[in-house]
Amino acid sequence: MYNQIAANKRKTWVLIIAMTAVILGLSWLFGVVNNVDPASTVIIGTMFSTVYALISYYASASIALASSGARQIQKSDAPELWNLVENLCIANGQPMPKVYIINDASPNAFATGRDPEHAAIAFTTGLVQILDRKELEGVAAHELSHIKNYDIRVMTIVVVLVGAVMLIADMLLRGGHIFGGRDNKNAGGAAVVLLIVGLVLAILSPLLAQLIQLAVSRSREYLADASAALLTRYPAGLASALQKISATQQPLARANHATAHLFISSPFGTTKKRGFWRELFSTHPPAEDRIARLMNMGG
């Protein structure tokens, strides 16, 4: 189990480094094809990405909670749920997050926040109604693990990097020089090859960046599942919860693609159909695979 957690962490950072390399490469290419000092464009691209990341870092939690229609509760509103979350926090050595309820029959939950000291965890009313205590404990442990593992911070970085890649790629495609501007009409064969490569990268890099984002999201789900199993010492609880959640194909009323990766299961509802392309473009691993891994952890 510990090896799986370590492997997922390594995979996540390898993907982030790869996406950062794509951004730097596109920034350099933008400078080359537009006759601007490439070093300057790389610096500007890095500065823009940093500012964008800081804004997203501090605003993402409020946006996610507001867009889902979550309502903050106190202990008196749902004492059993509150105590369950509080006990897990004590066991895991982390601060108590703010607790929210989403009035929606679709069973789901998510965590958000830039760090354990500024975190929130939200449950739908549908989830609380259909799960027993052990199952709900597994889901809560999964979401608290996202907070403890700084997954929200990681995914914010990834989303920002994807946005930067798409913006720079769009600038490349819109730049007249990439299609052979006045300065490039008499360029040699090497310059023509460079322009063709630049055009291909500008078209494909946004897709590659999105695929990396989805891969990171799936990796962090496996990591949170494993961490939750360690925290509760009862993998079957989360496995049973995932079984019930996946059996419900009802989508969340206020589901949106911007926050889909935050939820324990896709807020657009589950599907029994599987296939390479469907899984490649999914924010979450197949429920059957997650359940099988959890059951294997339980021996």
UniProtKB/TrEMBL annotation:
Its cofactor is Zn(2+). Binds 1 zinc ion per subunit. Gene3D superfamilies: Metalloproteases ('zincins'), catalytic domain. The chain crosses the membrane at residues 12-30, 42-66, 152-169, 189-212. Its EC number is 3.4.24.-. Zn(2+) binds at residues 142, 146, 221. Coiled coil: none annotated. One of its GO terms (molecular function) is metalloendopeptidase activity. Its main location: membrane. It comes from the Bacteria. It is found in: Cell membrane. The keyword Ribosomal protein does not apply. Keywords: Cell membrane, Hydrolase, Membrane, Metal-binding, Metalloprotease, Protease, Transmembrane, Transmembrane helix, Zinc. The active site is at residue 143. GO terms for biological process: proteolysis. It is a multi-pass membrane protein. Residues 78-295 form the Peptidase M48 domain. GO terms for cellular component: plasma membrane. The keyword Coiled coil does not apply. HAMAP family: Pept_M48_protease_HtpX (MF_00188). Belongs to the peptidase M48B family. This is Protease HtpX homolog.
